[in-house]
Design goal:
Helices cover about 30% and strands about 30% of the residues. The chain is built from two helices and four strands; from the N terminus they run E-H-E-H-E-E.
Length: about 80
């Protein structure tokens, strides 16, 4: 399991999140991604993006007033 803080990317974290899932996680490994939420659209968009790439969204939680955490399991080969 690995944790990634993408808050510094603000709303531009999507490409980096997918890049980390696909290059830094092993098959079936879990990654925890922390990102900043503005209007809540990043939550659905990140879930859709994870599914689109064939990975599994395991959890999605509000971390505090402005941050959100998603837990993603990389697809097994």
């Amino acid at each position: 399991m690995k944790r990634y803080d993408l808050r510094h990317l603000h709303e531009n974290f999507y490409d980096r999140m997918i890049e980390l899932i696909e290059s830094d996680l092993k098959p079936a490994e879990v990654g925890i991604f922390l990102f900043e939420v503005g209007d809540f659209s990043p939550i659905q968009k990140s879930a859709d993006l994870v599914k689109e790439h064939g990975h599994e969204l395991m959890n999605s939680l509000k971390f505090n007033e402005v941050d959100w955490t998603i837990v993603v399991k990389k697809k097994a080969h």
